[in-house]
Specification:
By secondary structure, the chain is an alpha/beta fold. It has a domain of 202 residues: 3-Layer(aba) Sandwich (Rossmann fold). Helices cover 39% and strands 16% of the residues. The chain has a six-stranded mixed sheet, with helices on both faces. Strands 8-7-6-9 form a four-stranded parallel sheet, with helices on both faces. Strands 2-1-3 form a three-stranded antiparallel sheet. Strand 10, helix 9 and strand 11 form a beta-alpha-beta unit. Helix 8 packs across helix 9 and helix 9 crosses helix 11. The longest helix has 15 residues. 49% of the residues are buried.
């Protein structure tokens, strides 16, 4: 179905057979999927329906019949008139909340669950603050696999928990944060023979790189900058990988600057790059209203740092107040409802200011606001006007 591919260690350059079940190199380094060669007829490719599987020649799947899909990808790229006018730049939002389960995770999960099926697994597992669990549960059900999700009991939005439950996953809530949940699932996958589908699995990120392809195909060219929220740090590196693959094939002739945005209470990558640390200093107790990026020890930090440095980009952090303000502004001014983690990219856009923004910028919003409605109700409940009579309603309308 696609070109020959293998697993490559980004730290020591070791190579492994792609059908060998492993998530890291023997040296401990992260793995990425590498293709021996790619031969793409881009004009033929663009005749297909837009979505993840439009780009099947770029994807590490061997048998087309094994594909597990819910019609993911093909998300809208909105031109933001209000933001563009105020920032004197062309601002777009790639709204990943329009995926089947409401987040960008579906792009990676269609590949990950397909690979689990190809490798003969009957059970899959992940740690999650919400979106990964929702996506894994849905795709596992589609593939008739058993899904296990391990979540922090006090750090998952109810909208996301509801999805995991209704799709039939076995939900295990722990007393601890995401980083502790990830340690548990890595042990379980190793000891119980269950396929791990967090973003440490390099196949997951192959699906997420299609965001880059869609941006190019929808815009018709390369934007100056792409702004991405950073949690476990897989998405920014996946988008960068996609951009580089398009450039290596001559489809594009330049690359964008990658800008990462973290929540101020969960910002180890921002601290590392902005304070000149040589290594990541994990945050043991991350705190932020943006639960999807409430991660203090991002497993893909080395890939993210490489993407930021290679692209001559940068990373910044934003406060919870800035995140919630950005969430309100994009809803009120552009008509797009996103979850707090998604709003980190918009908050980052505002914080950068007009001086550092190029002529064209794309913000990635990673999940729908319906995933996490509780925070909206809590922060906006004073706007509800309670009445007892029709006259009071009339008075409100006459104001």
């Amino acid at each position: 179905m696609c070109a020959m591919y293998y697993l490559h260690c980004i730290q020591c350059d070791n190579k492994y057979n792609a059908n060998e079940v492993r998530y890291t190199c023997d040296c401990g380094g992260l793995l990425e999927v590498k293709f021996e060669r790619l031969s793409i007829d881009i004009n033929e490719l663009r005749k297909r329906r837009i979505g993840v599987w439009r780009y099947r020649e770029f994807l590490p799947v061997d048998v087309e019949e094994s594909i597990v899909s819910l019609q993911e990808g093909g998300t809208p790229l909105h031109y933001c008139f209000s933001f563009s006018d105020s920032l004197k730049s062309d601002v777009y939002v790639k709204n990943e909340g329009r995926n089947p389960t409401g987040s960008f995770k579906d792009r990676g999960m269609t590949i990950g669950v397909t690979k689990a099926k190809e490798l003969g697994f009957k059970r899959v597992i992940c740690a999650s603050t919400g979106n990964t669990s929702s996506s894994l549960a849905a795709y596992a059900t589609k593939a008739q696999l058993t899904a296990y999700v391990v979540v922090p009991s006090h750090a998952i939005a109810l909208g996301k928990m509801a999805q995991a439950l209704i799709y039939g996953a076995v939900v295990i809530a722990i007393e601890g944060n995401f980083d502790e949940a990830l340690k548990i699932v890595r042990e379980l996958s190793r000891n119980k023979g269950i396929y791990l589908l967090n973003s440490i699995n390099p196949f997951r990120l192959e699906g997420q790189k299609t965001i880059a392809f869609e941006i190019i195909d929808e815009l018709g060219h390369v934007p100056d900058k792409i702004v991405v929220p950073i949690g476990n740090a897989g998405n920014i590196s996946a988008i960068w990988k996609g951009m580089k693959e398009y450039k290596e094939l001559g489809i594009i002739d330049k690359l964008p600057h990658m800008i990462g945005v973290q929540a101020a209470g969960a910002n180890p990558i921002a601290m590392m790059l902005n304070e000149g640390f040589e290594e990541l200093h994990p945050i043991s107790n991350p705190e932020t209203v943006a639960s999807a990026i409430k991660i203090g020890n991002p497993v893909n930090w080395t890939k993210a740092v490489t993407a930021i440095r290679e692209s001559e980009g940068f990373v910044l952090d934003v406060t919870d107040n800035e995140i919630l303000s950005a969430q309100s502004q994009i809803a009120n001014k552009e008509g797009i409802f996103i979850e707090p983690a998604s709003a980190a990219s918009i908050a980052g856009l505002f914080k950068i200011g007009t001086e550092k923004i190029g002529d064209e910028i794309v913000c990635i919003t990673t999940g729908t606001g319906l995933k996490d409605p509780d925070i909206v109700i809590e922060t906006h409940k004073n706007k509800i006007q309670r009445v007892r009579t029709r006259r009071e309603i009339s008075n409100i309308l006459d104001q």
